[in-house]
Design a protein that fits this description.
A hairpin with a 2-residue loop joins strand 1 and strand 2. By secondary structure, the chain is an alpha+beta fold.
Length: 228
Amino acid sequence: MISKRFLLALAAGLVLAGPALAQPAGPHPRVLIATPLGAITVELYPDKAPITAANFLKYVDRRLYDGATFYRASKPPGQAANDYGTVQGGLQNDPKRVLPPIAHESTLKTGLRHTDGTISMGRHAPGTAQADWFICLGDMSYLDADPKDPKAPGFAAFGRVVDGLSVAQAILGQPTDPNAGAGAMKGEMIARPVRIISIRRAPPAPPLAPVAPTPAAPTSPAAPTGPP
């Protein structure tokens, strides 16, 4: 069983660092995250989280994530499987590459949820998110905004993994340094961070070919009835 202590520590660490979602209607941009362990394809939802998705794409289009890393792997203590936790990547507040912080888009506003494969922004206080983000492995609804508690604004989800979730699981399984990190992040920093080779917009999927109607089977002429 996953302890409440782990869930609280994970959320706190995401603040310090900066199943699938329901599919909104219409086309959505996709990006390909290339790593030495394989590629992860993420679909973004600018129709639901326009500020957050646009911010992420600014970094992508300016190639600011090239050479960044997945540097954090967080899962419950003692858990051997790599199917629950978060992997965090980005620029780790590199002053030469980060862009201005963005407004917080609450899940109460976007309707998105932190379920398996969700990509969401790391941050300090709401409105401080810049360049670091995390991918959820497993259901983490406690990272959503709490409608009953204005002091629990949650994190800003803005897309989901549609291919390559096994790569994220492989990153979650990377050895961590027990002495690295501070606070809730201590012991969760990957000993040898996984390099992000590049993040690029994926080409749009080709439209599906129309299905030709099946011709009706020929029928025999009806037999005459009555006298000629």
